[in-house]
Amino acid sequence: MNFDDLRLVGVIDDETEFIPLMTSEDEEVMNQEETPEVLPILPLRNTVLFPGVVIPITVGRDKSIKLIQDANKGDKIIGVISQRDDMVEEPEQQHLYNVGTVARILKMFRMPDGNTTVIIQGKKRFNLMEFIETEPYIKARISAYEVSKTPKDEKFNALVSSIKDMALRIIEQSPNIPTEASFAIKNIESSSFLINFIASNMNAEVKEKQQLLEETHIRRRAELLLQHIHQELKMLELKNDIQSKVKTDIDKQQKEYFLNQQMKMIQEELGGSPQDQEIKEFEARAKNKKWPKPAKERFEKELGKLQRINSASAEYSVQLNYIETLLDLPWDTYSKDNFDLKRAKKILDKDHFGLDEVKDRIIEHLAVLKLKGNMKSPILCLYGPPGVGKTSLGKSVADALGRKYVRMSLGGLRDEAEIRGHRKTYIGAMPGRILQNLKKAETSNPVFVLDEIDKIGNDFHGDPSSAMLEVLDPEQNDSFNDNFIELDYDLSNVLFIATANNLSTIQPALRDRMEIIEINGYTLEEKVQIAKKHLIPKLIVDNGLKKDQIKVSKEVIVKVCEEYTRESGVRNLEKRLGKIVRYAAKSIAMEEEYKPEISTEMVEKILGPGHSKDKYQGNDVAGVVTGLAWTQVGGDILFIEVSLSKGKGKLTLTGNLGDVMKESAMIALEYIRAHADEFEINIDSFEDLNVHIHVPEGATPKDGPSAGITMLTALVSAFTKRKVKRNLAMTGEITLRGRVLAVGGIKEKILAAKRADIKEIILSKDNKKDVDQIKAEYLKGLKFTYVEEMSEVLENALLKSKANR
């Protein structure tokens, strides 16, 4: 209880020492007063005013200060209503309770700190009808609030007597309440004023006090008040009981113990400590959890251990984290697969153009799953150049299967604990990112994309790629063991999709565990379709345009592909098209004139001058042959140039060539030297002429064996001065015995040949199987010649006619 209001000394007038208490006669006069129809309304925070009770109010809001000043100059009568939410600064009618108290201003004065304090006395209850003004302060229409008359029977008198006795016991037991309070309560004659006085001063929330104010039956009001002060007395007795059990003279440690004892006893009275509540919560969650028997047994064991640990110790937080992780993991929770194969195919085709091999593999998996009911998920590795849609394909696969999607970037990962987690004995320990992502997915069978698996690092912390061996082995991953959980977790239902740009950096054991699906670059026709169906609509939306505000023709897309991008994927194409779309957005925003139909001439204005694509350069010069190469960004053509000059048979190689490529040049020259008679070359030429082999674009490093037959043809052409067949390119490795071996990257090389207007390609016979796997539309307009021997290459590549140069 709070009886600070009794300390208002000498604030009514100079003669009075205390505020006089209300007598029965005063109350009768007050009840006979008429309730005004309209009153200025003072909203109160954190308190409720009862009839007859005098309280001090500190006024802070500008509207409230203006109201008090005006009322103090006038009849001093105002309406007081408590706010439902004390955080509201400018209350409206819905923010106030419906019942308030008519009040009279007894005194107003400014405090030393600058605040305005006003002493008010409650008169009668009223009902708030409606606001009629809000400026400069609230004025409202009100009506009288009828309450029952005070009963005279013995039962009511006994109830009031109990309230008075209990209030006096609270004053007696509480060291903070002044002795004048008991004197004041003993001298109150009116039963209704006694109830109002104690209700005003008890420790209770505004909501509970408002309930007492609104109660129309005085008997019921007295019963509610008795309940509140009975509870307050019990709490006070409990507190005094606790304090009597501990020593008064205590040091710092004893003080902490005393506070904990107090808290413990209070919590026991309220129904348990927060730790007990947490444990009950864990037990409730575990009851409905789907999980294997070992996980359930471990949970029960660890929960028992948690109950025995002191909540203040560091070990408690580690144990709590472990139990929460056990509960958060999805264990035997699986999302239901959508077995509508046609729908899955439609989703995959809608999001990505081409990539048929991957799509077929997903549909195959879904078909087997539909027939069998359950099977281990495949572990796919999408391998190809940047920008062909490997990562985004994972999201489409998840949508097609109806599964959750999670992605984990492995680029630069170099700590094995990132995969397998830390031992839970360490503070701050957590599970590895595999289980963390499953926790996020909330199912044990999501589509899990392992992005950039070829860029995992390793150092003294460990080798994460070795830790991935267990994750990506279908024979082992049904019992994946995380260091933090220390239990087997079944990953066999997770559909892992790894992405990589370069298979050579993936360790062989890891590569062997994955189903490699090569995603090659797109043809020009495919890029045009991707731009029209996916990139341009997306860019129009991203840049805030409408469809009719920009039109990009097929010719423009072709020009951008050929002259402004040099890639297998479409990432740079998207950037260039984005600049064209932003040009239109800028013109609209700056209200400049522009044509929505973008022409090829406008492309140069927007993007600047383009670079001409690599084209076939003719066969006028002997010793120049077109080769095909594979690069990180797709296929390319390169020119092998051979020049002969008088000298002593020296071989010079330039053009930033790697060791393997240099060795190919040496093999070609030695083969020609050994078979000089067959090629009608004077054997003395090798001693009298210096040979210089150059591959243009010297700033670009080049390596690999696939330029072997190209170098051979260029050397024979140079020595014999025979022309090379027009529009011809070739690729293949050579041996000293004269064999032509197969090489890789065939699809990319064929795409590069088409871009360069090549009509015929010479390949090893062993590469025929690679060509057969390529779609017919990629091969349109190309003739393939398959060879086994180097002599066959020369027969097909060199003409009988001699070159002038």
Short key terms for the protein model shown above:
alpha/beta; seven-stranded mixed sheet; 26 strands; 43% helix; 18% strand
Structural overview:
The chain has 805 residues and is α/β, with parallel strands linked by helices. Helix content is 43%, strand content 18%. The protein is built from 29 helices and 26 strands. The strands form 7 sheets. It has a 7-stranded mixed beta sheet. Helix 3 packs antiparallel against helix 4 (180-186). It is elongated and about 140 Å long. The N and C termini lie far apart (114 Å). The relative contact order is 0.05. Mean pLDDT is 83; it is low at 6-17.
Give the gist of this structure:
The protein has 805 residues and is an alpha/beta fold. The chain contains 29 helices and 26 strands.
Our Rg estimate from Cα atoms comes to 45 Å
Shape: elongated
Number of helices: 29
Instruction: Give the DSSP E fraction (strand runs of 2 or more residues).
Output: 15-25%
Percent of residues in helical segments? Answer: 40-55%
Query: How is the biggest beta sheet arranged?
Result: 7 strands, mixed
Strand order of the largest sheet: 18-19-17-16-21-24-25
How are the elements arranged and paired?
Elements: H1 24-32, E1 38-44, E2 54-59, H2 62-73, E3 77-82, E4 99-110, E5 116-133, E6 139-144, H3 154-173, H4 180-186, H5 191-201, H6 206-214, H7 218-245, H8 252-270, H9 274-287, H10 293-308, H11 314-328, H12 341-351, H13 356-372, E7 379-383, H14 390-401, E8 405-409, H15 417-420, H16 433-441, E9 447-451, H17 464-471, E10 480-481, E11 488-489, E12 495-500, H18 508-512, E13 515-518, H19 524-542, E14 551-552, H20 554-564, H21 571-589, E15 597-598, H22 600-607, E16 624-631, E17 634-646, E18 651-654, H23 659-674, H24 685-688, E19 689-694, H25 708-720, E20 722-724, E21 728-730, E22 733-734, E23 740-741, H26 746-755, E24 760-764, H27 768-772, H28 776-779, E25 783-787, H29 790-797, E26 798-802
Parallel strand pairs: 1-3, 7-12, 7-13, 8-9, 9-12, 14-15, 16-21, 18-19, 21-24, 24-25
Antiparallel strand pairs: 1-6, 2-5, 3-4, 4-5, 5-6, 10-11, 16-17, 17-19, 20-26, 22-23
Helix pairs in contact: 3-4, 3-5, 3-7, 5-7, 7-8, 9-10, 10-11, 12-13, 12-14, 19-20, 19-21, 20-21, 23-25, 25-29
